[in-house]
Amino acid sequence: GDYDRAAANARAALAIYDRAPGQLTSEAALRELRYRALIVGARALEATGRGEDAFSLMSEAIRSFPDRSINGAQFDPTAVALFRKVKQELSKQGAGTIDIKVDDPAATVFIDEQFVASGSAHLEKLAPGPYRVYVTKGKETGRVRDVDLAPGTSLTIDVPWTLEAAFRNTSNGLVLETHGADNSKTIELAVRLGHALGASSVVLLSIQPLNGRRAIVGYSIDVESQSKAFAAVQIDPVTPSSATLKKLAALLGGDKSVTFPELITKEPAREDLITARSDVPPGPSHTSALVLGGLGLAALVAAGGFELSSRDTYGESQREADDARQHLLYDSANSKYKVAQAFAIGGAVSIVAAAVLWIHARPEHAGAPVAFVPSVEADSIGFAAMGSF
Asked: Is the separation of the CB atoms in 236 and 214 below 8 Å?
């Protein structure tokens, strides 16, 4: 009978569920709790005279669970009556259609945390109102799209999964995960995001070696023409603050009031950007470790071959009746055995050295993720991507 408390608790629970769409898509028990919170919350709001809010929550229950009828044994008759009333009103308003187009057929589509299709989806006879469209693939989480379906209308939603999979939300903002992608691919992804956000320019920032010292290296890219402007600030030995990164992003975004004492505006040759710092010797690569390990394995195989041959020759010497011939075979067997030992020792040393090199190797394409920082100008909106690319 404490309807005010019931309504407050139901809304608090629903707020938690709304923040965890990924969990609700995989855990049926949570979806069941959400369904009960919607019904209980709607009935409690109706009982306290908040009919419009009650209609809204019950409508959400009907949209989120379209194939489910309210259970009279689980809820009291007043809740059942409210359910039927709202469903009848939604039917009068007219159903709608939603088309979801995903550029990856292996992606999974959910509406209000209910599975609807793999890849693209076409949904008809939907009750009007707000829906949450959630796309994911395997263990990769997606983003929720809130859409509003007007009575008797159709909606088309395009989901560029290849773009969404490259970006992650973190406590520091939106991050582009390059996964070793080359510069052109990273720029392509950033420009696509710029188009999606309606930004006029994109600023890419990364921390890279430049002229023997670490530097913030940045490019300002026009989204339409994809023309580039370059700027860099050397920062060794101080780690740059977020304010420094934002200042360079603003400068590349067109803010003429920003100044740096050691600003580099001429883009160096690409090899100068990737040259290792002068005070840190270049480390071995994983390729070197693999080559050395391969040589070690080959040496061990050779050792095994000489060992078998040595045993065969020794056995032959034991069976030889002629003393001179027997001595020759014995010496040959002994020589092969020594060669086998040498190959075995060399192979073992090579494999151990390869393992050490692998552990201490410098990745050929190491780099931090690229994080995006907003840059708002008087006549344009842009954003900066910070990391390596």
From this structure: yes
Distance CA 238, CA 207 (A): 12
Among 301, 216, 206, smallest CA distance to 260 is for 216
Q: How far apart are CA 116 and CA 104, in angstroms?
A: 15
**Whole-structure pTM value:** 0.57
In 3D, which of 252, 210, 225 has the Cα closest to residue 385?
252
Q: Which helix (H) or strand (E) holds 16?
A: helix 3-18
| Distance (Å, whole) CA 285 – CA 324 | 54
Helix (H) and strand (E) counts for the chain? 11, 15
Per DSSP, the residues of 320-366 read --SHHHHHHHHHHHHHHHHHHHHHHHHHHHHHHHHHHHHHHPPPTT-
Residue whose pair of structure tokens reads 């001179």 in the numeric block: 324
Q: What is the pLDDT of residues 303-344, one digit of tens each?
A: 888 888 888 888 887 887 777 787 888 888 888 888 888 888
162-210 pLDDT, tens digit each: 888 777 766 556 677 766 666 677 778 888 888 877 888 888 777 778 7
Give the helix, strand, coil percentages of the chain, each rounded to 5. 45, 25, 30
Q: Which residue, among 389, 386, 384, has the nearest Cα to 249 in the 3D structure?
A: 384
Q: How far apart are CA 132 and CA 153, in angstroms?
A: 17
Q: Note whether 209 and 271 are within 8 A (CB).
A: no
The dihedral sign for the CA sequence 11, 28, 68, 105? positive
What is the C-alpha separation between 287 and 243, in angstroms, rounded?
Answer: 39
List strand residue ranges (DSSP E) for the chain, in order: 96-102, 108-111, 114-118, 121-126, 129-136, 144-149, 154-159, 167-170, 173-176, 201-210, 213-222, 228-234, 263-264, 370-376, 381-386
Q: In what order do the strands lie in the sheet with 114-118?
A: 114-118, 108-111, 129-136, 144-149
Q: Structure tokens of 132?
A: 């949450």
